[in-house]
Amino acid sequence: MSGIWNDFNSAQSNTNVIPKGTLAKVRLTLRPGGFDDPSQGWTGGWARRAATGAVYLDAEYTVLEGLYAKRKIWSLIGLYSPKGPEWANMGRGLIRGILNSAHGVSDKDNSPEAQLRRRISGFGDLDGIEFIARIDIGQDTNGEDKNEIRAAVTPDHRDYAALMGAVVPQSAAAPAQGHAPQQSTVASQSGQPASAPGVAGRPSWAQ
């Protein structure tokens, strides 16, 4: 005897993780951590300091459109690790990408206007910013898959304009030829979070 109620190998997986490489328009919300260091430009109470000495921004991303609308992803933006500069460099790179994506600036654009758009007066400028994210998958402290955001999509990507829902400014460079787009939607309409909040899944150099 066989049938869909006898053989479940073809059943849809009930994993709650958005597939790796999915592109989505998101809104970034920073959850204040209360740690300031004016010498580093960390003011306003946005940064958070872990017991290990690592400093980061506690970021919550809400998917705004598409099949994953209203899903939330919690991820960290590294500012400092006592183990070395790698985590901070990744954090700065992510913020650069977020600003490029939000303001429609090509990563290749080094004009004065583009440089101005990559400057902020403080981390509060990032709170509420909307951009196109490439969703990744990491692991929490229990070894379970969880969504993370490690990169933003800029106007150099040929799917940027459609996902952003706006005309790309003239300052943005033309899409790179031969750049294969990532899938931007995969069937799911769950309103549940994509991953649990907190600091689980922090990279080893931030421990």
UniProtKB/TrEMBL annotation:
It comes from the Bacteria. Residues 184-193 have a biased composition (Polar residues). Residues 171-183 have a biased composition (Low complexity). Residues 171-207 are annotated as: Disordered. This is Uncharacterized protein.
